[in-house]
Amino acid sequence: MQKLKIVILDGHTLNPGDLSWAPFEAWGNVTVYGHTRPGDVLRRSSGADVLVVNKVVLDRAMLEKLDGLRAICVTATGMNNIDLDAADALNIPVYNVAGYGTESVAQHVFALILHFTNRIGDHARSVRDGAWSRQPHFSYTLGPVSELSGKTMGIYGFGNIGKAVARLAKAFGMTVLVHTLNPVEHPDVNAFVPMEKLSGDSDIVSLHARLTSTNEGIINASFLEGMKPSAILVNTGRGDLVNEADLLHAVRTRQISGACLDVLRKEPPSADHPFLQEERIIITPHMAWSTREARQRLLEASAAHLEHITK
Predict the structure, then answer these.
(1) Beta bridge partners of 79
(2) Catalytic: which of 25, 267, 293, 307?
């Protein structure tokens, strides 16, 4: 079997040290960089048979300089960081991986939701700070705690992750409404609905559609104004699905109860991003995909693509 020269340009997010690169090493000599700045891409990539990237940008100008490059493996589903037309013209196949993070993302959706309904972290901190020890009663809460059972989950987009979220929602006893371009009867869905009904009838709206030119900013003032004041928005999909200025206004004016976001339009956000000042906007650092199990699946599936190159 021919040994490949494999260069991993930004491996830290996929493998911060808790996984093995052995699935790649089985195919050749592997050089791993945790991060690569734009100015270092050409130097580090020169002479590689295979580049493995997550967010590193490979545009036409860069690809044309990489003589001998035989393939690109993107350790993600989205490939918008690669000039696919240029890669095709240069006969450089580009491989991605779909479906590796379905359960991981669905789990994170409900971790975010349960933050709002049960406030586990807030209560745990209050106990640690001595609030329970000072209580005259055996039990207390910091505010209303609500059940998911009987509530309505609205899902925008119904791929694998949307379906997994629907399954979990049904397990919690929720009614499930879905907006998708191609509705097909599904046992976990109570109804497929237009966007107006998704907005108005849902207690929680969770976003799971891929980003296209037609749905950028689809969660805007009009959609948010239609939501219940008690409702929350959850976005573990794409930051660009949400008009951030409109969401900030909706939260500040209490058009909605709050938002849980794992993705933003610009990542990482600037230190003065206005969302960071809002207690009712909960932000996690684009980590919904990143359980150890999901990253292991992603790493193995990415390496498996190399079989096509060595034939």
Answers:
(1) none
(2) 267
CATH of 4-98+292-310, one of 3.30.565.10, 3.20.20.140, 3.30.450.20, 3.40.50.720: 3.40.50.720
Whether 185 is a known active-site residue: answer no
Verify whether residue 238 is a known catalytic residue: yes
- Domain covering 102-283: architecture: 3-Layer(aba) Sandwich (3.40)
SS (HEC) of 121-166: HHHHHHHHCCCCCCCCCCCCCCCCCCCCCCCEEEEECCCHHHHHHH
Write the pLDDT tens digit of every residue in 171-198. 999 999 999 999 999 999 999 999 999 9
Question: Among this protein's residues, is 267 annotated catalytic?
Answer: yes
Q: Of 210, 199, 267, whose CA–CA distance to 233 is shortest?
A: 199
Q: What is the token pair recorded at 311?
A: 């034939």
Put simply, whether the predicted model's pTM sits higher than 0.90 gets the answer: yes
